[in-house]
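Risk register update: the risk that structure generation would not scale has been downgraded. Supporting records follow, first protein first.
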Amino acid sequence: MKKLLTLALSLMFAGSVFSAEYPDISITELKTAIAEKKVTVIDVNGATSYSKGHVPTALNFAEVKDSLASKLPADKGALVVAYCGGPSCSAYTRAANAAKELGYTNVKHLSAGISGWLQAGEATEK
């Protein structure tokens, strides 16, 4: 019984660590960072969704994934934010992991995604 409890607690801890790998950023915080030109935003929703509307300044990950290193700032501590469809979508991790593998240390997740951005009444770019 004790071993089972230990295993259950270990799995719960591992799950919480994984889900918190990239800190969340709020829509308000992201808007401020965009206005101050202090963020690189990456949209991981695919080319069709991107062409219909994306967070202002966002890069289309489908288009830049092979050249991502040249699209990100030289400062490895610069803010990089990845997002996808919304809170239940995990596709953002492809871009977040790619930035992390390139050595970026300030990678965040807009968990609201494009759906939350639109629900908040925020403008998109096409």
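Supporting record for the second protein:
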Amino acid sequence: MPRRNGMGAAWWQGKFKGCGYRITLSREAIIDVLTKANKHLSAEDIYMRVHPKYPNIGLTTIYRTLDILVNIGIIFKFDFGDGRARYELVENTKGLNYHLHLICVNCNRIIDYTDYIDDVIELIDQIEKGLSLKYNFKITNHTIQFYGFCKECAGKE
């Protein structure tokens, strides 16, 4: 159940207020679902988890709310090549939720990994600074994804 002004929610509450948005029940419910998720959820997945508790929250509201949450930087939106956008929180209870993805092109399995993450962050920072200076471009986000075959699917090839 969503936490109204509860502990651990402050990181995203400030984002709403800073961007001029109210914290509504549907927004809290979606954030709560994403907080408890152990995988990348689609809008339909989120709807299926929210709807039993809050039947008045429709799929259109879910899509609209997800767009808002992406725009104000509370969640990431990913395209893993399977025709469905997937979502996850920018931060978790431990802080920033920075990791990268390995995507199996056969079974669509998504593996989150943090190996070499400090090296990756340092390299990305250098690339962003260089591109920003060269093209006078303010970079606000980036996506790095690796595609291939997971252990199970590679064995079938």
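Residues 35 and 92 are 7 Å apart (CA to CA). On this basis the risk owner (M.S.) recommends closing the item.
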